[in-house]
Here is the input.
Amino acid sequence: MSSTSDPAGAEALDALVARIRACRICRDAPKGPPLPHEPRPVLRVSGGASILVASQAPGTKVHLSGLPFTDASGDRLRSWMGVDNQTFYDVSRIAIAPMGFCFPGQDAAGGDLPPRRECVATWHDGLFAALPPFRLILAVGRPAQAYHLARLGLAAHLKASLTETVAGWRQVRAAGAALAHPVAVYTLPHPSWRNTGWLKKNPFFERELLPQLQADIARALAGGQGGDAFR
Here is the structure.
């Protein structure tokens, strides 16, 4: 799955991904109630991807398929990004790493539970240390925003609510562009149908944010380097 010029680095990344996929911590040594079903960690990473989709956790359909975003949320996300299925699932170009690798189960109302805490505590720091810097990061949902903004030294841009954090997208993007390894960071709501009302109440998202996001994604996929990806 790795595609890097460093054979030792590629081998180490592949070994790490294999350990993540074999993880059963949330069933065998959980922080709180154990996972109520067999774990099935889902992620797609490589040493060559320029874009990271940092999502929340798999849903029921993804738990069954083993492939991220094989649901209506995935259709909406790909529309937001302006990419087709083939591009989205090309792991040499786009990495997908949720904050919780396994489907966390559902609450009494039928909504998905938050990502399991075990994943970040066990895997994420090592995973992102093993991956090269990305040119573009989609931080989908508040857990991903909190983790990746802190990881990049941009924690001050995490506001009191998701709406405020997304509304500050220009400032987040500019701050990422100023890093030693420039990266276009986009803080996004989850593309679930449950957020359709949010989209209607916040028209700036589709009118202003998405065109810039799609332009930056096109540049990143075309191989734009450094500051060139933000012009």
In short: The beta strands are 51-54, 94-96, 136-140, 184-188. The chain has a mean pLDDT of 92. The first strand starts at residue 51 and ends at 54. The radius of gyration is 17 Å.
